[in-house]
Amino acid sequence: MFMRTEARGAHRGPEPSRFHSEVELYWRRPPSIGPGAVDNSGANRILTSGPCCIRTQNTVLGTARTDPGPAVDLVVDSNVMRCRVIVDLDALRSNYARLGGLTGGKAVILCVVKANAYGHGALTVSRSLVTAGARHLAVATLDEAVELRDGGVGASVTVLCGLESGEDREAALRGIEPAIGSIGQLARWNETGRTLARRLSCHLLFNTGMNRLGIDFNPGRKASRAKLLDALSASDWVDPRGVATHYASAEDFRNRQTDRQDRLFGRQLAVLRDAGFAPRHVHAGNSAAIVYRGAGGPRDRNGHNMVRPGLALYGYVKGPSGRKRVANHRFRPALEWRARVAGIRDVPAGARLGYGGTYVAPGPMRVGIVSVGYADGFDWRLSNRGWVALRGKRCDILGEVSMDLTLVDLSRSAEARVGDEVVLLGSKPYGAPEMADLTGGMAYEVLCGISGRVPRQYRNRSSGL
Q: What is the DSSP secondary-structure string of 93-129?
């Protein structure tokens, strides 16, 4: 199988095959290959040029011309990759459409693509969502927002965690909107707008009980009302087009915390509207709130007209507590993680495997050495308890997961060969929630934890790629 490889941050070029993947740039030319040269040894062919050469697994695939260019596109044989993530863009877009269906098309969807789109690759995921109709994206930091802008993404981008001091001017010049979580941030943003002679949009974020980020605003206290309204009245260069809060436990029906947050948020909104402020977007609903509480949809009694899904875009929803689990939310996991069998060895009974010798072979065993470890994000807590799949057969993890390699039991896979791929994560053998159950973590952690050294590749069947 050949796949397209695009340099991180480069503008998208023609799509020559079914996959598109990000790799690192090395800004130098190896002596063996001149500018614009092509490695004709087989799979590795430069399709278009850019200002760099490409390495994948320490193999130089080719170099670009010396003058700057917008993109580097390569055809790469997947056999050279020790491990890889494959992202199904059709599944991503299907999940986006499903969320639109759950809201009845009544709410604007603010797609959360922070943390490298939960490990899926922020730039390609954002481009794909935009082609599916998304017009609003959300990240956590200015650096994440700048990556999208530099990658040519023109959709609205909101920085959910706000801006650090000194970041306001760059954000304003790039058309990036912060979530304002304090009166001080509001004053800074207003001053930036005054300096640039430009009215700057933002979202006001209110604390309603999560007690993390957000403006502390008690509508029942005159001093609290006056402090906020005075600050807003003095902010002539700010356009607060959105007002938001953040649910702490939307999936938990064992307590009334979400209901209390809704009531307080409603009172906060009422004060703003009575004072003449009319935000275009009102939002609080995350994936769980959309699926379990109807946020942004026909059943939404709070008048929210925007929702902020994250995990559901990538195929998962945190399970509810205190009520029967929803039978089928019809989201499709968009990510599959595979790794190559780098070696196979037969060990005798009594052999100790891996660091610390924590696994002792009960009898003669066939052991596979898989090219993935905790430096790739494969959790060390899977040691002696997790498993992978090879041609649909379960292969238990033996001993400790090490930094770059993991040992697995091939006793059920006599046909296994060096170079075969095992599936680490996907709909099979288990998804992110199931892996999280084994590690004592959560699905978010599993997905976001896949490290940057693992290449991301993209399947796009609906476009014939």
A: HHHHHHHHHHTTT-SEEEEE-HHHHHTT-HHHHHHHH
